[in-house]
Amino acid sequence: MTLHVGEQSTGIRFDAARIPGRHTISYRIRDAYAGFPARTVEVLATPEELETLDREGYLVRERLLPMEEVERLRAALDETVARERDLEPGGSGFGGIFIRHLLDKHPAFLEFLRFAPVLSVARAMFGPQIFLRGFTGRVCYPDDPNQEVEWHFHQNLIPDPLPRWFSRPQTMDALLYLDDLTELNGPLCVLPGSHRRIAEDLSTGRFDDIPGQVVLQVPAGSVVMFHGSLWHRALPTRPGGTMRRLLIMGIGPTWMKGSIYGEKPENGLTRPLLRDGDPEKRELLGAAGFN
Question: What is the domain partition of the chain in residue ranges?
């Protein structure tokens, strides 16, 4: 049986013209007990883009979401933040507030469960079996202190020396910006190729420029996908800057552990999906796809 993953209609509308090309990958999973299942993935990226993502560690899709969709998601995030009882402060080096488990807290975010422009790229990089490790909102307010974010990466799990059978943790994060990322608004800064620096330490509290860094200023509706070990930071918000809202999709292979942050609602919106028998939904929610 061949499962054409990601083909169901996603609730999130996107501008297909912003995707320069697509191609198909057919996988066969070496699981004799499951009958060697086959999966076909339509990847919403070109092979050349995947090569760049592998080499540089990041891929940008400017204006992928139309403004009507951006405005709908802004309203959903604002509404969810307003009723959240226990917002997570970023603290020193990580300004703003965080709100976790958004898939369980508003139906607009649950529509990202089959968001092909991101998930198909993840399936091309990790293989067909993936899940959403986390879905987080972040809001930075222009008048708050500590808006600048230090250099960091998300997979701080590399031992020294490397054991013979060490399995390197590899994940992908997609940042979906709901506000313009400008010079005044705290643009994103990345260091291309740094996801490969597994033998190099990165100390805390670093805000300095690093040779080769790239500063990304993108309009609202843009998506930045990057390897979880890519070094990145946010520059400080300057006078005249505005609120900066973004959504963070964390994705990994199904056999990796999910995000440990935040408390998942006991009766969240994903709970019925775990019982409805849809194998792709269950896998994307971390309940299937491993032995």
Answer: 2-284
